[in-house]
Amino acid sequence: MRGQLVGATAPRTLPAGLVERCVAPGDGPALGRLMADAYRGTVDDHGEDETWHRAEAAKTLQGHFGAVVWHASPVAVDGGKLAGACLVTDDGPYLLLAFALVAPRWQGRGVGTTLIARRAQALLAAGHREWTLAVTAGNPARRLYERLGFVGDDSLRETWSDRSG
């Protein structure tokens, strides 16, 4: 999907109890745990264990999906534990919303919407005009992405297909 940052949704506030900060290189293990929890039982759950998710998070932080845009990649923290994350990477031709994750206990409370909308505003202010993401067919998050201005774009399929795995 491709999203235009022009006219992006205005920033919102996180639910009480959550604090936002930028992701850090040492967040890999916590991101892996969050990823495992967020994907468990969803269309994106293919039976991978937490070790696999930790490796995927480490690959992301090491640049597998493009260089992490650290200042544009927030995490929401609940008492020291990650409640949500929005990782943005830059691979040259496109900014990529590589992961938008929310812990089950915080889902449906605006955490993902807030993190993504705030990033859209920050990226727009920095001069960017669009970004992309990949979403699995049947993932209910697609509706969220569409509300935030993303539209389907099959031309991106080949661009990211060689990145999986």
Count of helices?
5
Shape: globular
Order of helices and strands: EEHHEEEEHEHEH
Oligomer: single chain
Stated plainly, the CATH topology is called: Aminopeptidase
Helix fraction by DSSP (H/I, runs of at least 4): 25-40%
Q: Briefly, what CATH class?
A: Alpha Beta
CATH homology group = Gcn5-related N-acetyltransferase (GNAT)
Q: From the helix content, strand content and strand pairing, which structural class follows?
A: alpha+beta
What is the tally of beta strands?
Answer: 8
Q: Measured on Cα atoms, how large is the radius of gyration?
A: 15 Å
> Which residues form runs of ≥5 with pLDDT under 50?
159-165
- Percent of sequence in beta strands: 15-25%
What can you tell me about this protein's structure?
With 165 residues, the protein is an alpha+beta fold. It has a single domain, classed as Gcn5-related N-acetyltransferase (GNAT) (Aminopeptidase). Helix content is 31%, strand content 22%. It has five helices and eight strands. The chain has helices at residues 28-39, 50-61, 111-125, 141-147, 157-161, and strands spanning 2-4, 19-22, 67-68, 74-78, 81-90, 95-102, 130-132, 150-151. The strands form two sheets. Strands 2, 3, 4, 5 and 6 form a five-stranded antiparallel β-sheet that branches. The chain has a three-stranded antiparallel β-sheet with strand order 7-1-8. A hairpin with a 2-residue loop joins strand 4 (74-78) and strand 5 (81-90). Helix 1 crosses helix 2. The longest helix has 15 residues, at 111-125. It is globular. Mean pLDDT is 87; it is low at 159-165.
